[in-house]
Amino acid sequence: MVGLQLLERGPVAQHHPLGASTGYMAEHRGDWPTLVDEAMETSTFAVELAALSEGELPGLQAFLADAPALPFRYLSVHAPVKHRRMGEDELVARLASLPPWVDAIVVHPDVMDDPARYAALGSALVVENMDPRKGYGRTADELAALFGVLPEAGFCFDVAHAAAVDPSMDEAHRLLDRFCGRLRHLHVSSLDEDCGHEPLRGSDEEDWAPVLRRCRDVPWILEAPLPD
Predict the structure, then answer these.
(1) Is 21 in contact with 78 (CB distance < 8 Å)?
(2) What are the residues facing 76 on neighbouring strands?
(3) Helix axes 57-65, 88-96, angle to 10 degrees
(4) Which of 45, 87, 185, 211 lies at a CB distance of 3.0 to 4.6 Å from 219, suitable for a disulfide?
(5) Where are the domains of the chain?
(6) Nearest to 43 by CA among 16, 8, 76, 12
(7) What is the pLDDT of residues 179-221, one digit of tens each?
(8) Distance from C-alpha of 188 to C-alpha of 146, rounded to nearest angstrom
(9) Domain 4-222 has CATH 3.20.20.150
(10) What are the CA-CA distances from residue 21 to residues 35, 38, 74, 128, 145 (Å)?
(11) Structure pTM?
């Protein structure tokens, strides 16, 4: 269910299925019951539980292992991308141990030391396109090589990352041309000048409309709160 307050807003707010990432809810980081409650204020249909720092992952594992009563029909987990210390085999093993009702496990390609190890996640693995600060995973050609190693993996399309790489959005269309069959969900926000996620600007929503229309059939996950 999408909150009624969203229905008077633009096409992103009105999209169904819509959900929120807990990654922007920094004040409650690590408090998974509270993060779930806050995410439900956006939608009870879809959510992304984001363990962006490695230290958050054990707590998320424990929370999900208790089989909490969650309303979401689509549940994504974002794997750690910061403060990484554990070996890649241990990280993949922890991700593989998540409950089978986790629909997607999002991984950044630029932090994969050995992409083949992630094949153990099967079709739950979802690879996200990167912003221009990153050294890999930004374009369709770069991701094609990765998907060649991980044929079961899905695609998480971050529209703001694609726009930062190529403001004309030609690369965004190339990503969808190549990987639309793998598309599992979107990340939606605007970016600040340092490529940090911030609330979606109306100008971005308008400029990205042709790309967004190509993604109507999958959940759109907000990586920043919608503006008032």
Answers:
(1) yes
(2) 48, 104
(3) 20
(4) 185
(5) 4-222
(6) 16
(7) 999 999 999 999 998 889 999 999 999 999 999 999 999 999 9
(8) 23
(9) yes
(10) 9, 10, 12, 14, 28
(11) 0.92
